[in-house]
């Protein structure tokens, strides 16, 4: 188990003083336990996890929540200020490139790969005292807690996890024997971490334009080409796509390869990190450009199934990206709430002002939506892994929905949280500035917003018809939410029907492609609204989730007149309940749901 070093291994971190905030400046969340203060997460884990698993894992959620608000947060601040540095050659002039990381980053790696073993928890027993691999719900809940402190490192963590998945599923027995023991190890000093290099100058979205070639020389595959965006650039093994000589053009001719950093005899493989990117966000983690100069690689799976296999990794990454966006939004909400409850202006705390409360709602609701969406998607993944075809269908559409909408919502939420802190939010000493910078990458990697919206409409809806599988699951939840007012549930059913029809029209009529994002947003909003309604209806759970559902219904799924004030009486009353720090009963808010 991780134990913080007795001395600070870096010198630039600020001391964590819980009394900060004296003398007019509002405090931040330093020192809080991000699990203990998260009513939504604590509630929902009890709905989405088996009771036994919840009982066994709760101490770990709590421990990580404390680390995320404490030591990890300190480390993340320092790592962001001390980005990695590439050394192109050693002192003898050899192209033995390597990357130096700040000690804060290395300490975060020890927590992630050594203590919690994020990379291995889905694949083997023995992590976090479990006698079997962790359910996806638990893994993503842990990612959610971790990312509230550190976003950059979650890329190497997640991509190691998903690389292991691909190798387990598609690699030959020999390749598995070679790679998996190293990749599943919890010895941070010797383990092999994974990554994925796909994007080239010719194309990120247009994968078929990839120019890297693979040639089989004396029975060994060698790769030639350039990869333009390579996060976790110095990973020990990278999964990548290349075109074997003679293979057809486009995506059909792409094969999947595993590229080791070191060869079996210990020498460096023949590829180089040419330079690191100077990035807006994720600054703690190294993203670089790679030149492949006849590098040795191992074919993974069947040569003509490269992209299909790689899409498994892409989809798992998309799910994790949705979780990361949810996590960053939660951090934004936590920071905004602590500030709003303490900052004084014109003789009152700023949370007392209706206009400020409205801003708080605008960051709280998307954050809660994404929480419900990722837990529902993760539970579908668990059920799909157990053999449910229905869950597999739901997951097919939930994954891009979550990636598309949560990552986009993260941007205005981060900006909104910065604004709540006022000018200090713009200053790099406070976490808000980093949250604003980090938020933007979510709409780019693993498919831009357009690419995800098109995946939803053309493939998940048009080809797979996964929206109808999702419809059946959501309608069951609504039927089951009998404690909710009938009229409110009927409105949700109607909204669902209209969103499904919109998605089908956009899928069927090519000129409507320009509405793909509108259709995807509608499906996301109605799905999350129904989930939050069902969750609120469960005995003992936070009834305020139904108010979040109603906000989504009114503001995202209903027509608005821009020339009428949109804060009716119900909204003012609802805000009272949402920001109340006491337990709210369903009976207290039922009237508001029908108003
Ligand atoms: C910091 C960072 C780290 C990254 N790390 C990695 C990594 O580790 N591995 C990796 O493989 N990649 C990585 N990427 C690359 C990332 O996945 C790509 O940048 C992304 O997929 C977009 O590709 P592109 O940059 O080529 O843009 P393009 O594909 O050229 O897209 C440009 C614009 O055109 C739009 N567009 C494209 N096609 C369509 C269409 N059919 N309809 C409508 N609009 C369209 C896009 O939405 C986008 O707005 C990283 C990127 C960044 C910024």
Note down, in words, how this protein is organized.
There is one protein chain. With 595 residues, the protein is α+β, with helices and mostly antiparallel strands. It is built from 18 helices and eleven strands. Strands 4-5-9-7-6 form a five-stranded mixed β-barrel. A two-stranded antiparallel sheet has the order 1-2. Strands 10-11 form a two-stranded antiparallel ribbon. A hairpin with a 2-residue loop joins strand 10 and strand 11. Helix 5 packs across helix 8 (306-340), helix 9 (354-385) crosses helix 16 and helix 12 (449-463) crosses helix 14 (486-508). It is globular. It starts with 38 loop residues before the first helix and ends with a helix. The model has no long low-confidence stretch (mean pLDDT 95). Flavin-adenine dinucleotide binds at residues 196-199, 203-206, 229-231, 279, 282, 287, 441, 444-445, 447-448, 450-451.
- Specify Rg, calculated over alpha carbons: 24 Å
> Total number of β-strand segments?
11
What binds here, in terms of ligands, is: flavin-adenine dinucleotide
Largest sheet: 5 strands, mixed, barrel
Structural class: alpha+beta
Distance between the termini: 52 Å
| Unreliable segments of 5+ consecutive residues | none
Which shape, going by the Cα principal axes? globular
User: Fraction of residues in helices?
Assistant: 40-55%
What is the residue-averaged pLDDT? 95
Question: What percentage of amino acids are in beta strands?
Answer: 5-15%
SSE order = HHHEEHHHHEEEEEEEHEEHHHHHHHHHH
Count of DSSP H/I helices: 18
């Amino acid at each position: 188990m991780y134990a913080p070093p007795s001395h600070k291994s870096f010198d630039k971190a600020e001391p964590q003083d819980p009394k900060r905030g004296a003398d007019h400046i509002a405090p931040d969340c330093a020192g809080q336990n991000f699990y203990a203060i998260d009513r939504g997460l604590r509630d929902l884990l009890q709905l989405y996890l088996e009771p036994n698993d919840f009982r066994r894992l709760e101490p770990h959620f709590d421990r990580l929540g404390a680390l995320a608000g404490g030591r990890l947060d300190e480390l993340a601040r320092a790592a962001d200020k001390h980005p990695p540095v590439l050394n192109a050659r050693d002192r003898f002039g050899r192209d033995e490139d390597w990357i130096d990381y700040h000690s804060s980053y290395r300490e975060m790696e020890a927590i992630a790969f050594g203590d919690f073993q994020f990379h291995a928890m889905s694949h083997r027993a023995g992590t976090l005292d479990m006698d079997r691999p962790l359910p996806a719900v638990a893994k993503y809940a842990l990612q959610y807690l971790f990312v509230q402190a550190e976003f950059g490192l979650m890329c190497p963590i997640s991509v190691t996890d998903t690389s292991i998945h691909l190798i387990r599923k598609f690699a030959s027995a020999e390749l598995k024997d070679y790679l998996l023991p190293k990749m599943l190890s919890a010895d941070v000093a010797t383990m092999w971490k994974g990554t994925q290099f796909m994007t080239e100058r010719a194309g990120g979205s247009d994968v078929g334009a990839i120019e890297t070639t693979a040639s089989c020389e004396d029975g060994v595959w060698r790769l030639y080409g350039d990869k333009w965006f390579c996060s976790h650039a110095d990973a020990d093994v990278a999964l990548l796509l290349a075109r074997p000589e003679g293979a057809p053009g486009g995506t059909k001719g792409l094969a999947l390869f595993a590229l080791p950093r070191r060869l079996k005899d210990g020498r460096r493989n023949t590829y180089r990190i040419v330079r690191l990117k100077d990035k807006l966000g994720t600054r703690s983690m190294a993203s670089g450009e790679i030149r492949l100069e006849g590098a040795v690689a191992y074919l993974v799976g069947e040569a003509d199934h490269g992209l299909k296999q790689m899409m498994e990794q892409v989809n798992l990454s998309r799910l994790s990206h949705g979780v990361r966006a949810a996590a960053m939004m939660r951090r934004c909400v936590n920071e905004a709430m602590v500030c709003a409850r303490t900052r004084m202006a014109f003789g009152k705390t700023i949370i007392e002002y209706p206009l400020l409360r409205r801003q708080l709602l605008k960051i709280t609701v998307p954050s809660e939506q994404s929480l419900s969406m990722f837990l529902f998607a993760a539970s579908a993944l668990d059920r799909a892994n157990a053999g449910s075809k229905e869950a597999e269908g739901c997951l097919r559409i939930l994954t891009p929905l979550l990636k598309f909408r949560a990552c986009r919502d993260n941007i205005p939420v981060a900006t909104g949280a910065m604004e709540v802190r006022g000018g200090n939010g713009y200053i790099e000493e406070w976490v808000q500035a980093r949250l604003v910078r980090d938020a933007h990458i979510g709409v780019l990697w693993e498919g831009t917003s357009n690419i995800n919206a098109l995946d939803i409409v053309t493939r998940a809806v048009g080809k797979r018809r996964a929206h109808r599988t999702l419809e059946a699951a959501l309608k069951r939840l609504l039927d089951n939410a009998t404690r909710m007012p009938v009229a409110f549930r009927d409105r949700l059913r109607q909204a669902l029907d209209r969103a499904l029809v919109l998605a089908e029209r956009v899928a069927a009529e090519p000129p409507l492609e320009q509405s793909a994002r509108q259709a995807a947003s509608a499906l996301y909003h109605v799905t999350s609204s129904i989930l939050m309604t069902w969750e609120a209806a469960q005995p003992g759970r936070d009834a305020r989730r139904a108010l979040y559902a109603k906000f989504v219904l009114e503001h995202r799924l209903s027509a608005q007149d821009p020339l009428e004030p949109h804060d009716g009486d119900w909204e003012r009353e609802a805000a009272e309940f949402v920001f109340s720090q006491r337990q709210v009963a369903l009976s207290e808010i039922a009237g508001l749901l029908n108003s």
